[in-house]
Amino acid sequence: MAGVLVAVSLPVLAIVTTLYFHRIQAEQVRATGQFNEVIEAALKNAMLKHDLDGIRAVLDDIAASPEIERVMVLSPAGEVRFGDTGAPIGTHLDDPLIERAQQSDSSLAAEIETPDGRRLLRSVKAVHNRPECGECHGSIADHPVNGLLVLDYSEGSATADARRGALWLAVLGLLVTFLASAAVLSLIRQTVVSPLTRLSAAVRSFRDGTTDTKLDLSGHDEIAELGRSFATMADELGKSLADLHASEDRLQAVLDAIPDAIRVIDPDFRIVKANAAYAALVGVPLDRVLGQPCHLSSHRRDTPCPATLVRCPLQEIRDGAGAMTCRQTHLGGAGHERHVEVAAAPVNLGSRATPRICVVESIRDLDRAAHLGQEHRLSELGLLAAGLGHEIFNPLSSISLVAGAIEQDAAAGDMPKLADHLATLQREVGRTLTLTNSLLTLCQPPGDKQVVDLSLVVRQSLELLGFKAREIGVRVVTDLQPGLWVLASESDLRMSLSNLVLNALHAMPDGGTLTVSTRRVKDEVVLSVSDTGHGISIEDQRRILLPFWTRRADGTRGSGLGLPLVLAAMDRAGGRLDMASTPGEGSRFDLVYPAPEQHA
C-alpha cells in the first residue's frame, strides 16, 4: 500500500511542482517585461542625448542587481553595442528569440543554458524606431527597429525557494505515507491478519480430519461473519462426514453379509471395495486387499491378465460388452486354485460431468457351491429316507405275513392259495424295489443328459413324498399327459421336483391340495407344481431365488438353497423356472424344458 501511495503521490507532486514552477516563470516573465519597459525608458533619454557614458552607467547599475546576470543592447543584426562590464562588446549574439522579438511589440522570454550548465531566463525586447530617433536611425519605414534590449535573469530566490519547497513537500509526503502505512498495517494485523491466521489454522485442522474444530472470532465485520459461517459449515460437514462414515460402515456390513465374494475394480485395475468373503477367498486380510491390483490379488500376476488367456471383465466392459458372466480360476491362500464364476457389471462411481466407470464383480466359489449343493441334497435324502421307512413298512409287513401263509400252504399242500400268495409277495417286493430305486436315482450326482419319462419320474417322486403329504393332511392330485419326455439329467429332474413338492408342502401346514401336472405347449414341455397354501408376498418374490434366503410358512428353518439349486439344474438342462404366486391363495412353479427334438 505504501508503494501504491508513493506511486500515486509522485505524479501528483510532479504535476503540482511543474504548475508551480510555470507560475513562477510566468511571474518572472511578466516582471521582466515591466522591468524592460523601465530600462527602455531610462536608456531612451540617454540615447537621445548621445550620452554613451550614461548608457554604460545605466547598464552597470542594472547588472549590479542580484537577479540580473547580464544586460546588453544589440543592433537589429544581433551585434552587441552596449553592455555591462561583463558583456562581450562587438560580438554577435545568435538566438532565435532575437528575430522573433523584432516582430513583437512586447517582451519575449525563454530559458537558456550557459556553457557552464546554468539555466537563465533571457528576456528580449525590441526598441522600435520613433520619429524623434529619425536623426540617427533614419525613417521608421526603412528602420522599424533601432535595437534590442537583452536581459539574462538568474533563477533567483523564488525559484530556489520553490525547489526547496518541492523537496520538503516530497519528504513530508513520504513521511506521511510511512506513518499512514504503519498505522494501516497495525490495524490490518489486528482486524484482518490475526483473524485470518486463526481461520486458516482452523481450515488446515479441518482438512487434516479434526471435524470438531472450534473457532470463535469476535466482532461484527465480514471476517468475523466468515469465521462464524465456517464454524457452522464445519459443524454441518462434521455431521455429514460422520453420517458418511456410518453409511460406509453399513455398506461394508451389507457386503460382508453376502456369502459370495464381491469386489469393485476401478479403471486402473485397483480394488476399491471388497467384502469379507472375497478376502477369505484369496486368503488375504481385507485391509490389504483394498488398493491391490485385481490381477495381483486373484491371479498373482504383476501385470494385467492377457486377453488371450483370461476373460477380463474390466477390459471387455471397456470395449462395450456390458454385463457379463465368465468362469475363471483364482488363486486362494497358499496358492490353492479355486474355480469361480464371475458375474460383472459396469458402475459409474464418478459424476455425470466426469464419469468414472468401474466394474463390480460377484464371484461365486463353484467348489463351495457344489459342496453346499451336495449337503442340501443329502439333507433332503435324509428326509426322504425317513419317508421311505414309512412307505416300505407296509410292503415288508405284507411280505412277512405272506411268507407265513406260504409256509402254511406248502405244509398243507394247498397249491392254489400258494400261487396267490406268491403273486402277492412278488407285487409287494416290486413296490419296495421301486421305492428304493427312486431313492437311489435321486442320490446320484448330476450326470449326462438323457431322455426321461416325466410320468414315471413324477409317480415315483410322489410315492417317496406321499407320507409327508398324508402326515399334514395334503391331498395330492396329478394330471399327467402321457408320452411326455424331456432331455435332462434324471437326478437333476428328481431333485428339482422333490424341492418344489417339499416347498409346496411347507406352504400348507394346515393342509390343502397339491397338484402336479405335465403338458406340452408348442415346442416346450412343462412340469407344474401348484399348491393352495399361503402364497408368497410381492416383496419376497424378488428374493426367493437368492442363495441362503429362506422363509417357510410352517415356521421351520430351511437352508435357502432349494430354489437356487433348481435354477442351476434348469440352466444345465437349457430350460427355465417360471413362478406365479398370489398371497393367501397359493403358488405355482413351472419347470419348462425344451422339447427333446429341439436338441437335435
Main β-sheet, in a few words? 5 strands, antiparallel
CATH homology superfamily name of the domain at 2-154 = PAS domain
| Outline type | rod-shaped
Separation, N- and C-terminal Cα atoms: 94 Å
Helix count, per DSSP?
Answer: 16
User: Could you tell me the number of beta strands?
Assistant: 17
What fold name stands as the CATH topology of the domain at 2-154? Beta-Lactamase
β-sheet strand percentage: 15-25%
Oligomer type: single chain
Structural class, from secondary structure content?
Answer: alpha+beta
**What's the CATH class of the domain at 2-154, please?**
Alpha Beta
Q: What's the pLDDT, averaged over the residues?
A: 77
Task: Estimate the helix proportion, in percent.
Answer: 40-55%
Side by side, the strands of the main sheet go: 2-1-5-4-3
Question: What report would you give on this structure?
Answer:
It is rod-shaped, with a radius of gyration of 60 Å. Among the domains are: 2-154, PAS domain (Beta-Lactamase), CATH 3.30.450.20; 253-364, Beta-Lactamase; 449-600, 2-Layer Sandwich (Heat Shock Protein 90), CATH 3.30.565. A hairpin with a 2-residue loop joins strand 14 and strand 15. With 600 residues, it is of the alpha+beta class. Helix content is 51%, strand content 20%. It contains 16 helices and 17 strands. The strands form 4 sheets. A 5-stranded antiparallel sheet has the order 2-1-5-4-3. Strands 7-6-10-9-8 form a 5-stranded antiparallel sheet. It starts with a helix and ends in a 6-residue tail after the last strand. The chain has helices at 2-48, 52-63, 96-102, 134-137, 156-207, 222-257, 276-282, 286-289, 294-299, 313-318, 366-412, 415-443, 454-471, 490-506, 538-541, 562-573, and strands at 68-74, 80-83, 108-113, 119-128, 145-153, 261-265, 271-274, 324-331, 337-348, 357-365, 450-453, 474-480, 485-488, 512-521, 524-531, 576-582, 586-594.
